[in-house]
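User: Batch of two.

Assistant: Item 1 of 2:
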Amino acid sequence: MPKVPSCGWNWNWSGAYRGGFPAAPNSQNSLAQAMITNPRLIVQVENGYYDMATPFFETEFTMTHLGLPAELQKNVKLNYYNAGHMMYLQDDDRVHLHDNVASFIDRGMKQ
């Protein structure tokens, strides 16, 4: 049997349990703390409506429940695409993704 590469496969899931079963690690608190520590930090999330790997309802909930003050919550932007996880495979969404990422970079340069 081939050896599994260590890169990306050795996640530490310790402490990530719900009801005795492993759950995905939660970075919500770390993100909120990073944004509080650096008030110039901006976050942009790209969401495909039909994404079954990272459902956008969960992302919306997480991003709107970070417990940030209003002046920091405005540093979070959610964008939506009529695609799934790989929105860049659809021509219209790829153009919007490009424009949104370029806008994010421009916005970050002005921070």
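Item 2 of 2:
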Amino acid sequence: MDTLANQIVKITPRRLENFFNHCIQRLAQARVFPKYIHAACDTTLYETTDQYEGCGSVLRERKVKVRGYRKAGELKAVKVWLYGWKVWAIYELQTGIPLAIKIDTIEKPDNLHVLAVLLQARENVKGSSVIRSLVADRAFLDGKSLYAIDQQGIEFVIPLKSNMEATQDARALALEVSCSMESTREVTVTHGYGKKKFDEKVLTTLVGVPGLLSCDWFNPEGSEANTANKDYEPIPLNAVVVKTWDNQTPPVDKQVVMVTNGEVKDPFVAFDRYDDRSLIENNLFRDAKQNWHLEESPKKTREGVFVQVYMVMAMKALTKAFLMWQEEQARLHALGEETSWEMYRRKLKMLNRNKLIVFIASYFGIFLSHEVIMLVDVPVHKTAQELGVTRTSIYTKYTGLSPP
């Protein structure tokens, strides 16, 4: 194992990234992804110890259990040093396959590589698919980056921070709209199993607020723009205010507000896209750490981390694509339609149906059937005339000698 680890970390990070990108590009060429992609962007921490060469460090607040602290079992907030790297990913929500990956040290801000990883994702699916929308958490709330995403023709959905002026304005405007402007949806959710199983009606109420002008950070310069300039014109964004979420109705100052550059005539379109953002956390990052050993690098080095991340993500993407193909073949077979597996077996049968395997003691050879028959001096109808072969030519072909 040490020999393998010593050799595999010699692969440069650039080559590993190219390998992953080529895997996604081949999947795109095979039409694995939908024509119009709805994607999510997020990061996860690749935590290590300070013994890893090249790792970054950041001071974070964590809640831990402290014996004797106030009430038993209560969590206390303490500041701890975290070491390691941070992984960026663009995730295709329908197939559950990562489209692009970036890695940097752990202290880097989340919005640092969002444009680079999005550009790589677009390049990987170019020619077969188009990224239509992108959802992200509030850690990516950077006006300059969001403006660049908007200029690429991509609709984004992102929640605002509670203390922002735009958040307060959207909540106030949502109070002023008539009831006809609200959108309500009620769905039935099943809880529990067996005798404890029960259904619950879950209500969600949204308000779409178009033309919000207080997002003064949304421009080509971001928060550095001089909004006091007489020539400055705010760029409007649309907002979705969540009044009730799964039967939970918080006070006005706690209502979730999302902004988007897309339409909010039906606010549930933006809401549902953002709600699917949890898939990248659970189905990609958590699954990769728990079931794919993402954080078990072959060496405690930067190169070891890059090898582990890119190889795990590539294998996860290819495995997911294979399972999708397998499900499609099973569906076609159940419908009585021809599957690609059956087509492959039929082609393989056609290529080998005119061949024989001859065993002599511990030796064997694969020959064309007419060659075997002619070598035992049995005439084959029209073969000599059609193929231009004789028993002598076949014997000489395999032995280099004249037949006895």
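The chain has a mean pLDDT of 89.
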